[in-house]
Amino acid sequence: MKLKIIEKMFNRDKLKKNGFSIAITLLFLAALILLNILTGMLTERFFIKADLTETGLYTLSDKAADFLRDINETVDVIVLSEESTWLANPTFDMISSILSNYAATSGGRLRVQYVNPDLNSFNGPLYDNSLANLKEAHTELENMVRNDIILLSSRRATIVSTRDLFAQTQDEYGRTAVTGLRADQELISGLIYVLNEEIARIVFINNHGESQMQYMNLVFERSGYVSSTINLATEEIPDDTIVLVSAAPNFDFLNDEIVKLEQFLSLGGNAIILYDSQLPSLPLLENFLFEWGVVIEDQLVFDDEYTFIAQYGIIGAYVPAGDLPSTVNAEMLTTNVVPIGAMAARPITQTGAGGGFSRNPLIRTFSTSSYAKDISGGSITTTERESGDESGPFALAYNISRLTRDANGNQVNANLIVAGAAMFDDTFLSMFGDNFYNRILIADIANDLNPFGDRVYIAPTDFGNSQLLISAGSARMILIVMVILLPLAIIAAGVVVWRKRRHK
Q1: Of 306, 290, 312, 309, nearest in space to 398 by CA
Q2: Coil/strand/helix, residue 168
Q3: Model confidence over 99-126: pLDDT tens digits?
Q4: Do residues 329 and 444 lie in contact, with contact meaning Cβ atoms separated by under 8 Å?
Q5: What's the chain's Rg over C-alpha atoms?
Q6: Which of 48, 187, 279, 452: CA 20 to 30 A from 367?
């Protein structure tokens, strides 16, 4: 009897059959685990995520995706923060997801790494892996701080600040709110800058008490420029200068400086003169502008209807469609959309001088609801409309062109842009940059004047009402449930059913 029991227990055929079943089960489970691991790797490598946000916050724009796919060299994206810190912060985690998407869309040519800036070390083939050496080699990185994003190519580097990745708006009481993302615009513009073969140069004149215009400078850099400053009285204009800027000068130009400016324009250069609303008498500069066919009037413009932020005296204006003929946004900057913001603006009028020039108003007030007050006496007593005030519309900026030849004898256009400085200064652009299209207008001008490449404009994405995202971690959890736990539950249920049938 005992022998029969032992034979039954050690029946070879049965052992083989049970062993085969166990082996198949183990192989199946191993395959499921391997599939989960591979899927997790693919999730990170190819950004397999579902964007369920109402406005598609995490979905790349077509322009961004096309640009990223065309990148044919390595760019290091160095986030100056520990990765755990970013992932723990909902705001930074959002940017982290976007950077992962960028890396995947570029086919791995964008190498994203998170670096603790206190450790002074990063992974890369250059600069001995030292952040200090990297900073010393690139003056663009002088002001880098924690949480900044560094874009580094074999040509140059730039900083993208995380605060610039979010669209903000400000109401009439000065309250600021974050309304969406403009990460695509900032990151793609930064990549264009570090990848362009040739770079245009913008030079800011600094010896007449000019404003620094740091934000305007940043927009030009994002549009593919490098910048420098010059004392026009003692230095020559660099040969590679594309745009020369004098922003709100407080002291008049010298005769020699006017000659340098004229020579620069005569060879096809481009100049931007931004005047202050309290512009003092600058006879030589005013005469130069008169020769180009425009006069800045001793008036301040206000508006009965299109006053958008009364606290700051900001009225609405617009760019006439077609006055920026080669820009992608000329049709956007019309009366049908959010306008250009104009603060403390003075009107510009044409003169009989300036033969051979093409003079086009670049910015206009909306309608006769605008009016101008005489400030030739030095001040005004009220901003309310009075019977003696001149009615609009007014031109607040002019784009003046003249056909000429460059140093090589090629026929080119010289451009002189005259506008109010308050519309483009640091305070205005940082406080109201997403309320109006002023920043876009600067970028359009930069793009029009840049002979070495095109800027990409990507509209900000609103947050909307929903911000749901299935992230890489969430995707893996779903895969664990669907690919491992659910099959195991099915197998367990099958075993239970099999055992019940076996004992029947």
Answers
A1: 290
A2: strand
A3: 999 999 999 899 999 999 888 888 877 7
A4: yes
A5: 32
A6: 279
